[in-house]
Amino acid sequence: GRVKMSAEEILVCAVELGKNFCLYFDDLFFIIIPAELECDALCKEKTLHRVLRNVNSQLLVVRPDLNVAAFEDVTDQEMQSGKGMHFSIHCYKTTTPLAGMPVAFSVQVEDKSYYMCCERERGEMIIRFKEGEVPKEIPGESNIIFFKKTFTSCCSKAFKFEYSMERGMFLAFEEEGYLRKLILKKLSKDEVDETMKISL
């Protein structure tokens, strides 16, 4: 008698409070889903337009025709024409909490867009810029994704970028003749490496 009655009342109540019921359901939904969906699907959320500077205040410039990206001293005039130095930093949302914000880089040169990726060549990781657009969604791992982290806890304005598929490897530069070439470099534990410091 009465038990059945109260159960019905609760049920009717929940249906009448449609909005609240939905919100409650949403809360549950968010608690349950991440545990079940162990996937690293990434979805593009926003794009920042920035120049990338190293510790010497030099700008990263991409020259696809020469297959090179390096930090260079750039005049104001060159910066305005901006060939190969105005980057789009594509920030992705992720279904799993990760070590830093997942980002991908692209750059315009002439009328073409190039995206940054990493490839293994003769046993070492090489940075490449390939013609094409950055995807809106990335179903799993990708060689274009880097994790953006603050450079040090006390230096929140500068960042380091860890390659998502090889943890401990970061974007950095190395001197090669007069060039300060963009490379991937292993970070030794607890070391602060200024060649990895990038300001946006």
UniProtKB/TrEMBL annotation:
Chief place where the protein resides: cytoplasm
Species lineage: Eukaryota, Metazoa, Chordata, Craniata, Vertebrata
Transmembrane annotation, as ranges: none
Subunit organization: Forms a ternary complex with ligand-binding receptor subunit IL18R1 and signaling receptor subunit IL18RAP at the plasma membrane. Mature IL18 first binds to IL18R1 forming a low affinity binary complex, which then interacts with IL18RAP to form a high affinity ternary complex that signals inside the cell. Interacts with cargo receptor TMED10; the interaction mediates the translocation from the cytoplasm into the ERGIC (endoplasmic reticulum-Golgi intermediate compartment) and thereby secretion.
Localisation: Cytoplasm; Secreted
Record carries keyword Lyase: no
Gene Ontology BP, a term: inflammatory response
Pfam short name (any one): IL1
Superkingdom to which the source organism belongs: Eukaryota
Alphabetical list of SUPFAM superfamilies matching this protein: Cytokine
Similarity annotation: Belongs to the IL-1 family.
Biological source species: Pteruthius melanotis
Protein's name in the database: Interleukin-18
Entry-linked InterPro entries: IL-18 (IPR015529), IL-1_fam (IPR000975), IL1/FGF (IPR008996)
Keywords of the record: Cytokine, Cytoplasm, Secreted
